[in-house]
Amino acid sequence: MGPKYVSKAGLFSSDPWSRRAQSLEEAFCRLGVDAIHVIPWKVSRRGSTDKHEISMNGEDLSLLDLLFVLDIGATDIGAFFNRVGLLSALTEMGVSVVNSVSSLLLMRNKAETMRRLVSAGLPVPKTLITESIDDAAIFVKEHFPCVLKPITGFGGLGVQLIEREFDLDNIYDYLKFHSQMFGKGAYLLQEYVKSPGYDIRALVLDGEVIATMQRVGGEGITTNIHTGGVPRENTLDVTDLSVKSAKSVKGKLVGVDIIPDVDENLWVLEVNATPGWTGLQQVTDFDISERIAETLSRV
User: Which one of 36, 147, 212, 271 is separated from 158 by 20 to 30 angstroms, measured CA to CA?
Assistant: First the structure.
């Protein structure tokens, strides 16, 4: 007797036409699972004294067995809280939401993610998280060159390497501008890890590393595929580090970014709750979407 799968799955994404969303829909359908695209800005919630209804185009979303969150997709604070509330409500109604709301919120916050990684005893670069521009400026001067990141964000947006003497001489103006554009009042600074020219992305699914790649190049400091990074086969063993990183944030499907230094030490940079796998698929000999769909939908 073969494996049993859920009857109905939702793909939560603000871009249902993306390659990732389309490939997952096809993978679920091949398993006999009815897959629908849940577009957050098309969902309505209606409440009264005795009931709470969540629907999209007249379809009751509480009847889903599984809701896979591909992206939250909200930069506006109102839309963000609405979508978090929507996912929380569906969880209470018995829908299995992946990743869980608590895990999604944790990984959306790079400061909290860093705390979890540190608590798990994982190797991370020296880091400062503060709202004090004075403390931030001191850190930059003591660890120059260093990396400045926004507390929230994805795709490498707002990640900057402070390496020019001009930036150091004008560090207060630099920090103010970054805060206005990306940081929104908080600073996350890390010592710069000099790499051999690449970093590593590992994809962890249900406690198992299913794919890894090295990312070479890209625009600026980031080697993210969205910023021009080129994927190639990974030959370094990052299994233990990746699994422990995913476990520290209690994620079911997690992207872990790791960087080697010139002495071949490995450092965990970030953990992503809504990872893509376009680059990974180019260096992987099986269908990643199919593996994800099969794992998540198995009863």
Answer: 212
